[in-house]
Write a structure and sequence with these properties.
This protein is α/β, with parallel strands linked by helices. It is 18% helix and 16% strand. The two termini are 32 Å apart.
Amino acid sequence: MKEKLNIYIGYDSRQDDMPNFGRVKNAPFEVCKKSIAKYNTEVSIQPIILKDLVATGIYKRELDPLASTEFTYSRFLTPYLNNFEGKAVFCDSDFLWQCNIEEILEFYNNDFSVMCVQHDYKPKEDTKMDGYKQTVYPRKNWSSLMLFNCAHDDCAKLTPDTVNTESPKYLHRMQWTSDEMIGKIPSLYNWLEGEYDGRIDPKAIHFTNGGPWFNSWQGDYEALWREIYTTL
């Protein structure tokens, strides 16, 4: 029997009531989820909701004023939430998928602990659309899409205790594993809108600088995002 792929999407409750999208609660998350299901109804899609992790005692990390989303750190609980078994994908909620998400399994290698798009860029803007400072650090946006080999010994380090206590550097720069254990996924599966060529038709668009759910946003791929939104 084919192993069912579990997808975990970050959920930010601060986007529950968007000014342009009152009809749909948390439009960015719902569009991301719907875009995945459009091409594959067999995968399991689960939100990572911070308040639920706090309520169950899994997440105890103090509030970080520099964290741009509620899932800045909780994303690294993905292997734990998947019982440290099999494969699992994490992606940010501001993704728009234009393909079967299981395509990234073509790049899976059981020797690696995690696979991701290994971006090498500097953001063009200093401030994000939601007002948060645009931080610049090595391996920025590598953790916005991760394909975990959850049973790998290095993923076993990502316990709730580790996620609650370790530094942002340790988590986001993937210092919990070695460089040799980080596999590559092509950039078309994490195409940074506003940073990469807007004339390309990528596999997955990442609205890392904000998206159509902001009043003042202007950028590429808006019609594609709204096309999914109208189906909700």
